[in-house]
Protein backbone atom coordinates (compact mmCIF):
# COMPACT_ATOMS: atom_id res chain seq x y z
CA UNK A 1 0.00 0.00 0.00
CA UNK A 2 1.07 3.64 -0.41
CA UNK A 3 2.77 5.28 2.56
CA UNK A 4 -0.30 7.43 3.31
CA UNK A 5 -2.69 4.47 3.47
CA UNK A 6 -3.78 3.68 7.07
CA UNK A 7 -2.75 0.05 6.55
CA UNK A 8 0.84 1.25 6.14
CA UNK A 9 0.83 3.78 8.98
CA UNK A 10 -0.74 1.37 11.47
CA UNK A 11 1.69 -1.42 10.55
CA UNK A 12 4.64 0.95 11.02
CA UNK A 13 3.38 1.59 14.57
CA UNK A 14 2.96 -2.15 15.19
CA UNK A 15 6.46 -3.00 13.97
CA UNK A 16 7.97 -0.25 16.11
CA UNK A 17 6.14 -1.66 19.15
CA UNK A 18 7.28 -5.23 18.36
CA UNK A 19 10.87 -4.08 17.98
CA UNK A 20 10.76 -2.14 21.26
CA UNK A 21 8.94 -4.76 23.30
CA UNK A 22 11.29 -7.53 22.14
CA UNK A 23 14.38 -5.40 22.83
CA UNK A 24 15.24 -5.60 19.15
CA UNK A 25 15.20 -9.40 18.96
CA UNK A 26 12.31 -9.24 16.48
CA UNK A 27 12.92 -6.76 13.67
CA UNK A 28 10.43 -6.76 10.80
CA UNK A 29 11.19 -4.33 7.96
CA UNK A 30 8.24 -2.87 6.04
CA UNK A 31 8.45 -2.10 2.31
CA UNK A 32 5.45 0.03 1.23
CA UNK A 33 4.54 1.36 -2.24
CA UNK A 34 5.03 -1.98 -4.05
CA UNK A 35 8.81 -1.82 -3.50
CA UNK A 36 9.05 -5.62 -3.56
CA UNK A 37 7.00 -6.01 -6.73
CA UNK A 38 3.38 -6.55 -7.70
CA UNK A 39 0.88 -8.26 -5.42
CA UNK A 40 1.13 -11.51 -7.37
CA UNK A 41 4.92 -11.39 -7.21
CA UNK A 42 4.85 -10.82 -3.45
CA UNK A 43 2.42 -13.69 -2.98
CA UNK A 44 4.92 -15.92 -4.81
CA UNK A 45 7.76 -14.57 -2.66
CA UNK A 46 5.76 -15.26 0.48
CA UNK A 47 5.03 -18.85 -0.52
CA UNK A 48 8.73 -19.49 -1.17
CA UNK A 49 9.76 -17.91 2.13
CA UNK A 50 11.70 -15.10 0.45
CA UNK A 51 9.59 -12.72 2.54
CA UNK A 52 8.08 -13.55 5.93
CA UNK A 53 4.86 -11.52 5.79
CA UNK A 54 2.80 -9.66 3.24
CA UNK A 55 -0.33 -7.56 3.07
CA UNK A 56 -2.30 -8.53 -0.02
CA UNK A 57 -5.78 -7.80 -1.30
CA UNK A 58 -8.44 -10.48 -1.13
CA UNK A 59 -9.26 -9.67 -4.75
CA UNK A 60 -5.77 -10.52 -6.02
CA UNK A 61 -5.30 -13.44 -3.61
CA UNK A 62 -8.25 -15.04 -5.38
CA UNK A 63 -5.98 -15.88 -8.31
CA UNK A 64 -4.06 -18.22 -5.98
CA UNK A 65 -6.78 -19.26 -3.52
CA UNK A 66 -10.17 -18.88 -5.26
CA UNK A 67 -12.26 -18.77 -2.07
CA UNK A 68 -10.26 -15.76 -0.78
CA UNK A 69 -12.19 -13.54 -3.18
CA UNK A 70 -15.68 -14.37 -1.97
CA UNK A 71 -16.09 -11.24 0.25
CA UNK A 72 -15.80 -9.16 -2.93
CA UNK A 73 -18.94 -10.51 -4.60
CA UNK A 74 -20.66 -7.46 -6.09
CA UNK A 75 -23.27 -5.71 -3.93
CA UNK A 76 -23.15 -8.54 -1.39
CA UNK A 77 -22.77 -6.66 1.90
CA UNK A 78 -25.09 -3.86 2.93
CA UNK A 79 -22.54 -2.42 5.36
CA UNK A 80 -19.77 -3.12 7.84
CA UNK A 81 -21.95 -4.87 10.43
CA UNK A 82 -22.62 -8.00 8.38
CA UNK A 83 -19.19 -7.74 6.74
CA UNK A 84 -17.14 -7.95 9.96
CA UNK A 85 -19.52 -10.58 11.31
CA UNK A 86 -18.71 -12.72 8.28
CA UNK A 87 -14.94 -12.17 8.25
CA UNK A 88 -13.93 -12.01 11.91
CA UNK A 89 -15.76 -15.12 13.08
CA UNK A 90 -18.04 -17.82 11.79
CA UNK A 91 -18.05 -20.44 9.05
CA UNK A 92 -17.18 -18.16 6.11
CA UNK A 93 -14.06 -16.82 7.82
CA UNK A 94 -13.05 -20.35 8.86
CA UNK A 95 -13.48 -21.63 5.30
CA UNK A 96 -11.27 -18.88 3.86
CA UNK A 97 -8.54 -19.40 6.46
CA UNK A 98 -8.62 -23.17 5.97
CA UNK A 99 -8.29 -22.69 2.20
CA UNK A 100 -5.06 -20.71 2.72
CA UNK A 101 -3.28 -23.37 4.77
CA UNK A 102 -2.53 -25.83 1.91
CA UNK A 103 -0.58 -23.00 0.28
CA UNK A 104 1.54 -22.56 3.40
CA UNK A 105 -0.13 -19.30 4.43
CA UNK A 106 -1.20 -18.25 7.92
CA UNK A 107 -3.83 -15.48 8.04
CA UNK A 108 -4.22 -12.79 10.68
CA UNK A 109 -7.21 -10.41 10.81
CA UNK A 110 -8.24 -8.76 7.56
CA UNK A 111 -7.52 -5.07 6.99
CA UNK A 112 -10.20 -2.76 5.58
CA UNK A 113 -9.69 -1.49 2.04
CA UNK A 114 -13.23 -0.29 1.65
CA UNK A 115 -16.26 -0.37 -0.55
CA UNK A 116 -15.15 0.56 -4.04
CA UNK A 117 -16.30 3.36 -6.36
CA UNK A 118 -15.47 4.36 -9.93
CA UNK A 119 -13.35 7.40 -10.84
CA UNK A 120 -12.99 8.40 -14.51
CA UNK A 121 -11.72 11.14 -16.79
CA UNK A 122 -14.41 10.62 -19.44
CA UNK A 123 -17.87 10.90 -17.91
CA UNK A 124 -19.77 10.28 -14.68
CA UNK A 125 -21.27 6.81 -14.24
CA UNK A 126 -24.96 7.45 -13.66
CA UNK A 127 -26.31 4.28 -15.28
CA UNK A 128 -25.05 0.88 -16.39
CA UNK A 129 -24.87 2.23 -19.95
CA UNK A 130 -22.28 4.81 -18.87
CA UNK A 131 -19.77 2.02 -18.19
CA UNK A 132 -19.99 0.55 -21.67
CA UNK A 133 -16.67 0.67 -23.47
CA UNK A 134 -14.76 2.37 -20.65
CA UNK A 135 -11.29 1.00 -19.97
CA UNK A 136 -11.33 0.58 -16.18
CA UNK A 137 -8.18 -0.31 -14.23
CA UNK A 138 -8.76 -3.24 -11.88
CA UNK A 139 -6.36 -5.26 -9.70
CA UNK A 140 -5.59 -8.84 -10.82
CA UNK A 141 -8.99 -10.01 -9.59
CA UNK A 142 -11.20 -12.50 -11.44
CA UNK A 143 -14.26 -11.20 -9.56
CA UNK A 144 -13.71 -7.53 -10.46
CA UNK A 145 -12.79 -8.40 -14.03
CA UNK A 146 -15.96 -10.47 -14.34
CA UNK A 147 -18.05 -7.71 -12.74
CA UNK A 148 -16.99 -4.98 -15.16
CA UNK A 149 -17.20 -7.23 -18.20
CA UNK A 150 -20.76 -8.10 -17.18
CA UNK A 151 -21.57 -4.36 -17.01
CA UNK A 152 -20.13 -3.70 -20.48
CA UNK A 153 -16.83 -2.08 -19.50
CA UNK A 154 -13.33 -3.13 -20.57
CA UNK A 155 -11.41 -4.00 -17.39
CA UNK A 156 -7.63 -3.87 -17.62
CA UNK A 157 -5.17 -5.12 -14.98
CA UNK A 158 -2.51 -2.58 -14.02
CA UNK A 159 -0.15 -2.72 -11.03
CA UNK A 160 -1.20 -0.16 -8.40
CA UNK A 161 2.16 1.61 -8.49
CA UNK A 162 1.72 2.16 -12.25
CA UNK A 163 -1.92 3.27 -12.15
CA UNK A 164 -1.35 7.03 -11.85
CA UNK A 165 0.77 7.11 -15.02
CA UNK A 166 -1.70 4.87 -16.85
CA UNK A 167 -4.58 7.22 -16.04
CA UNK A 168 -2.52 10.31 -16.83
CA UNK A 169 -1.59 8.97 -20.28
CA UNK A 170 -5.09 7.58 -20.96
CA UNK A 171 -3.94 3.97 -21.09
CA UNK A 172 -7.08 3.57 -18.96
CA UNK A 173 -10.18 5.79 -18.79
CA UNK A 174 -10.58 5.32 -15.06
CA UNK A 175 -10.15 3.05 -12.10
CA UNK A 176 -12.21 1.65 -9.27
CA UNK A 177 -11.16 1.74 -5.64
CA UNK A 178 -12.08 2.99 -2.18
CA UNK A 179 -12.00 6.70 -1.32
CA UNK A 180 -8.94 6.43 0.98
CA UNK A 181 -7.07 4.56 -1.75
CA UNK A 182 -8.08 7.19 -4.34
CA UNK A 183 -6.71 9.83 -1.99
CA UNK A 184 -3.54 7.89 -1.15
CA UNK A 185 -2.67 7.30 -4.82
CA UNK A 186 -3.52 10.93 -5.76
CA UNK A 187 -5.27 9.82 -8.95
CA UNK A 188 -7.78 12.65 -8.37
CA UNK A 189 -5.11 14.88 -9.96
CA UNK A 190 -5.63 13.22 -13.35
CA UNK A 191 -9.34 12.26 -13.16
CA UNK A 192 -12.55 14.29 -13.10
CA UNK A 193 -15.61 12.24 -12.11
CA UNK A 194 -16.17 10.19 -8.96
CA UNK A 195 -19.21 7.91 -9.06
CA UNK A 196 -20.19 6.33 -5.73
CA UNK A 197 -21.12 2.95 -7.19
CA UNK A 198 -20.12 0.98 -4.06
CA UNK A 199 -19.97 -2.07 -6.29
CA UNK A 200 -17.68 -4.29 -4.22
CA UNK A 201 -15.76 -4.48 -0.94
CA UNK A 202 -12.12 -5.45 -0.75
CA UNK A 203 -9.88 -6.20 2.20
CA UNK A 204 -6.20 -6.84 2.71
CA UNK A 205 -5.17 -10.13 4.25
CA UNK A 206 -2.17 -9.89 6.56
CA UNK A 207 -0.39 -13.18 5.88
CA UNK A 208 2.65 -15.02 7.21
CA UNK A 209 4.82 -17.65 5.54
CA UNK A 210 3.71 -20.76 7.40
CA UNK A 211 7.09 -22.42 8.02
CA UNK A 212 8.69 -19.14 9.12
CA UNK A 213 5.80 -18.52 11.49
CA UNK A 214 5.86 -22.05 12.91
CA UNK A 215 9.59 -21.75 13.59
CA UNK A 216 9.06 -18.79 15.93
CA UNK A 217 8.74 -19.33 19.66
CA UNK A 218 5.32 -19.20 21.24
CA UNK A 219 6.22 -15.93 22.97
CA UNK A 220 7.31 -14.34 19.68
CA UNK A 221 4.12 -15.49 17.96
CA UNK A 222 2.01 -14.06 20.77
CA UNK A 223 3.83 -10.72 20.66
CA UNK A 224 3.59 -10.35 16.88
CA UNK A 225 -0.01 -11.59 16.77
CA UNK A 226 -1.13 -9.17 19.50
CA UNK A 227 0.40 -6.14 17.82
CA UNK A 228 -0.86 -7.19 14.38
CA UNK A 229 -4.39 -7.54 15.78
CA UNK A 230 -4.11 -4.13 17.46
CA UNK A 231 -2.84 -2.62 14.21
CA UNK A 232 -5.83 -3.99 12.28
CA UNK A 233 -8.25 -2.57 14.87
CA UNK A 234 -6.59 0.86 14.61
CA UNK A 235 -6.49 0.64 10.83
CA UNK A 236 -10.19 -0.10 10.57
CA UNK A 237 -10.99 2.91 12.75
CA UNK A 238 -8.62 5.21 10.85
CA UNK A 239 -9.96 3.94 7.53
CA UNK A 240 -13.56 4.56 8.64
CA UNK A 241 -12.69 8.15 9.59
CA UNK A 242 -10.89 8.75 6.28
CA UNK A 243 -13.76 7.21 4.37
CA UNK A 244 -16.38 9.35 6.16
CA UNK A 245 -14.57 12.55 5.25
CA UNK A 246 -13.19 11.44 1.91
CA UNK A 247 -15.98 12.60 -0.39
CA UNK A 248 -15.86 16.16 0.93
CA UNK A 249 -12.07 16.28 0.57
CA UNK A 250 -12.23 14.94 -2.99
CA UNK A 251 -14.93 17.44 -3.92
CA UNK A 252 -12.65 20.17 -2.59
CA UNK A 253 -9.90 18.87 -4.90
CA UNK A 254 -12.16 19.43 -7.90
CA UNK A 255 -13.81 16.05 -8.47
CA UNK A 256 -17.41 16.03 -9.66
CA UNK A 257 -19.24 13.52 -7.44
CA UNK A 258 -22.46 11.64 -8.11
CA UNK A 259 -24.25 8.74 -6.40
CA UNK A 260 -26.12 6.51 -8.86
CA UNK A 261 -28.99 4.21 -7.94
CA UNK A 262 -27.24 0.89 -7.31
CA UNK A 263 -30.27 -1.36 -7.84
CA UNK A 264 -30.03 -1.34 -11.66
CA UNK A 265 -26.35 -2.33 -11.48
CA UNK A 266 -27.16 -5.31 -9.28
CA UNK A 267 -30.10 -6.24 -11.53
CA UNK A 268 -27.86 -6.07 -14.61
CA UNK A 269 -25.34 -8.39 -12.96
CA UNK A 270 -28.08 -10.86 -12.04
CA UNK A 271 -29.44 -10.80 -15.60
CA UNK A 272 -25.96 -11.37 -17.02
CA UNK A 273 -25.52 -14.56 -14.98
CA UNK A 274 -22.76 -13.05 -12.80
CA UNK A 275 -24.16 -14.37 -9.50
CA UNK A 276 -24.99 -17.80 -10.91
CA UNK A 277 -21.47 -18.07 -12.34
CA UNK A 278 -19.78 -17.26 -9.03
CA UNK A 279 -22.09 -19.43 -6.99
CA UNK A 280 -21.04 -22.35 -9.19
CA UNK A 281 -17.33 -21.45 -8.88
CA UNK A 282 -17.33 -20.97 -5.10
CA UNK A 283 -19.62 -23.92 -4.47
CA UNK A 284 -23.00 -24.14 -2.74
CA UNK A 285 -21.62 -24.57 0.78
CA UNK A 286 -19.38 -21.48 0.64
CA UNK A 287 -22.16 -19.51 -1.07
CA UNK A 288 -24.59 -20.52 1.66
CA UNK A 289 -22.06 -19.36 4.30
CA UNK A 290 -21.85 -16.01 2.49
CA UNK A 291 -25.62 -15.63 2.22
CA UNK A 292 -25.99 -16.13 5.98
CA UNK A 293 -24.59 -12.60 6.27
CA UNK A 294 -25.79 -11.02 3.02
CA UNK A 295 -29.20 -12.51 2.37
CA UNK A 296 -30.04 -14.07 -1.03
CA UNK A 297 -27.82 -12.92 -3.89
CA UNK A 298 -28.73 -12.80 -7.56
CA UNK A 299 -32.48 -13.04 -7.08
TrEMBL record:
This protein's name: TRAP transporter substrate-binding protein
Compartmental location: Cell envelope
GO CC terms, sorted: outer membrane-bounded periplasmic space
Organism whose genome encodes this protein: Methylobacterium terricola
Keywords recorded for this protein, A-Z: Signal, Transport
CDD domains in the cross-refs: PBP2_TRAP_Siap_TeaA_like
Keyword Signal: yes
Pfam family, any one: DctP
Family: Belongs to the bacterial solute-binding protein 7 family.
Superkingdom per UniProt: Bacteria
Any single biological process term in GO: transmembrane transport
Coarse class of the protein's main subcellular location: other
Keyword Transport among record annotations: yes
